Amino acid sequence: MMVQHEDELRTPPKASTLLRVLSALPFGIAWASFPDGKIQYCNAEFVRLFGHDASQFRTVDQFVDSLYLFDPRL
């Protein structure tokens, strides 16, 4: 069993390490900046589930508009 020292626990992980973990997740994940809603990241499972990647829309609003059809009855 590996023991970590307290100072190692306080060091944040590298961005590249986090991106590798996020890209390997078995569920779709994406995030956007706030308050402008610009898409910053989508993992491969997100793209597979929704058929869109971040290059196909710039903001969360554009993404939502592309997924949901407007139904005037609602």
Tell me about this structure.
There is one protein chain. The chain has one domain (11-67). Helix content is 41%, strand content 9%. It is elongated, with a radius of gyration of 17 Å. The protein has four helices and two strands; from the N terminus they run ααββαα. The chain has 74 residues and is mainly α. The mean pLDDT is 81. InterPro entries: PAS, PAS-like_dom_sf. This is PAS domain-containing protein.
List its salient traits.
74 residues; PAS; 41% helix; mainly alpha; 4 helices; PAS-like_dom_sf
Summed up, what is this model?
Residues 20-64 form the PAS domain. The chain has helices at residues 6-10, 15-24, 44-50, 60-67; strands at 30-32, 39-42. The chain has 74 residues and is mainly alpha-helical.
Describe the secondary structure blueprint for this structure.
Elements: H1 6-10, H2 15-24, E1 30-32, E2 39-42, H3 44-50, H4 60-67
Antiparallel strand pairs: 1-2
How many helices? 4
Mean pLDDT: 81
The poorly predicted ranges are: none
Helix fraction by DSSP (H/I, runs of at least 4): 40-55%
| Domains, number | 1
Side by side, the strands of the main sheet go 1-2
